[in-house]
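Trying the structure run again after the queue cleared.
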Amino acid sequence: MKNIVGISLLFLLLVGPWYFITNEVNGGLMFYSSLILTLFLAITGFVIFLENRDPIQTITWLVVFGAFPFIGLIFYFLFGRNFRKERIFRKKYFLDKQRFVKVSGELEHDDRMKEMDENSQLLFALANRLGNSPISFTTETRILRNGDETFFNIIEEIKKARHHIHLEYYIVRDDRIGGVLKEVLKQKAREGVEIRFLYDAVGSWKLARAYINELKNAGVEMVAFGPLHLPLLNNKFNFRNHRKIIVIDGSVGFMGGLNIGDEYLGHDPKFGSWRDTHLIVKGEAVRTLQLIFLQDWYYSTNHSFLTDEYLLTGSQLHHEHGGVQLIGGGPDSEWTIIKNIFFKMITSAEKSVWIASPYFVPDDDIFQALKVAALSGLDVRLLVPKNPDKRIVFHASRTYFSEMLASGVRIFQYNEGFMHSKIIIVDDRLASIGTTNMDMRSFHLNFEVNAFLYGTDSTQQLVNDFLEDIKVSQEVEIDAFSKRNIGLKVLESTCRLLSPLL
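Done. Tokens:
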């Protein structure tokens, strides 16, 4: 049914404007065109109904179709299709699960788990069950607080590579830092290092073909994740790879919030300073990061490298650094993995929940959990940017503020440029850092990866960094916020209406 609707819509998009331009529109044609459009709307509405989405999301789509029928259909086919995602990615899910379960069985730390508090034990057990990924106590992590620090460490570690380099990014730009990366990858390829580079076709749609070809000619395998030929007819258009992963020789890994681009170094004239957080990982848990990449590579190329050569390489650390668990989530998952772990973190908190997110459009579960935590007397804080880069999301997020402020949540707007960190800290001892935003797209549609940390030095560093960010942020006061003008409130409410579709 979806293909019939897609082909019919494409026909309307191509043929409809031609009739208007050539002045051939008459009463009869208008009647039949309206009839056909109404039929397509009815079919699409029925498809959405059968998907059993959240009722609010379903109603929102129907309202958009009623108010803006033609534009609503285009918007739906570009961004809203969510049907049968479990079938689309069924093969990937089961292959991933089998391999993750095998690796998980090889990394057991029951004795160390018993030393953790009960809430943390339950959380990591949940994460293991949902994500099929073990917790490691012999993995070293270090927080990278900005673009300069992150890219310096990435380039230095890439230069040390001897066997392979694996990269997976949502956005790659052909700019200064993109050029630096390109040259160092070309040099390593000439040295005989295997290099595989997976980039998202939508996130990197501006990436120049010359950039790709130059790397390919040097021996780098460049592959687009989810390539699009006919976007309106492509049922995978809405499911994007938002992960940022680098694995070097199976022993060193990077993941976090920074893509490849000059803006992440603070060189964007619009935002200036760019506040972000990345993580360097060394030791046992790198194997999970490697596995996530190799599964995505296999899905995109049908070429498998799931061998001990890639999964058992690199130095193994034997001293303890606290608990580290790396989790990949996405539309191929049986459960909304990372969102459910976030929910468990919030509901198990005993003292505090601190969140930093550039895009805050939570679903009802997370929204209610945060309000209940604050009403229970916990120290709940939300750090968001003061200046937007995506205006619809920015304004939609503001509609959640009144209820949160009323429940006791403290909200801070970061003032020094743009804040892009994606952090959750619970009780100063448990933390999450990764690519997942606090929004419905990250929860349900994107492929994401997060690190969950317990009692590590990195956990304490995240606590310290959050407190420093608060110092350069402005707290939102409920009285002043409630007095914003009616025009702004209407704009925010309109964006909120669209938020289930984002």
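DSSP finds 21 helices and 19 strands in the chain. Worth checking whether this holds up in the mutant runs.
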